[in-house]
Amino acid sequence: MRAGVIVAAAAVLLAVMFVATLTGSAGMSARGVALDLIGALPGVDVDSGLTAQQHGILWQIRMPRVVLGALVGATLAVAGAAYQGVFRNPLADPYLLGVSSGAGLGATGVIVAGLAVSAYAIPAAAFVGAIIAVVVTLALGRSVGGGRSETVLILAGVAVAAFANAGQTFLMQRYSENLRRIYSWLLGRLTTDGWTDVWVLAPYAAVTVLVVLLHRRTLDVMLVGDTEAASLGMDPTRVRLLLIGVATLGTAAAVSVSGLIGFVGIVVPHAVRMVVGPGHRLLLPLSVLIGAAFLVAADLLARTALAPAELPIGVVTAAIGAPFFLLVLRRSRGAL
Length: 336
Prior knowledge:
It contains 14 helices and no strands. It is mainly alpha-helical. It has 2 domains: 12-58, no CATH class; 70-331, ABC transporter involved in vitamin B12 uptake, BtuC (Orthogonal Bundle), CATH 1.10.3470.10. The chain is globular.
């Protein structure tokens, strides 16, 4: 049953990616796109019938965007599942410890300073800002609670996020001529210039997914509490910090190339948990696959709902995620 569910989720992901690749203003036949994709496999040589222009659109515009969406969605979803596991809280998400606020401050600072002279400047600043925010959060949590209390870490994250948000608001108010560009990044986007963003994110996404999946049984043990986990020979503090660090690194990388895309880390893991239960052996791989499919589908909706105009993808995920968040809150009210 476990293998069948994972195969079904993988099939859903491939189907969503194919539809997203097929959809766009430049009309292409499903057969032509399918044959062109098959022809990219090693040792396969088929004539897809696509023109050189259509081939370029497929491989330099549509495919990079679809693959980037899948990577961002998978990373945010598995990071959210990891956070919910280590904090034993279904409302925890990848931005809990100040990642989004730090990234937003870093990106805003570069934009208003006029340093965004290359395509890499804003992502690099967002990545550095996110990492600094979480390092400060962990340092504060360790100084107050010795890193042993999830509550202390969360409160430290709230304080750091409030400080970063204050700095970002000040910069936006002081340099209002840059508001359009800042909001464009803050609301999330998956626009790409070829495969560059994909290659930047791929190593971080791979490490995040691999490390979290390798700790799926550990996360199951941590659900029973630190005392019980320690009695089984585990060091809960070390495991918690490792998983938080890895999940944060992946989240920071995802945010740096996509902007702030909310609710993926809450909606996907919790939706999967409602279907298959709390066991991480199935929850984590399904979160990866469904998270990727969810964000690719959300991006497809964002670029087709008001075509030829394009909605920010963060608006789409918020429209879906906010009602689901209220549902999760209602279902969890007895455990919070």
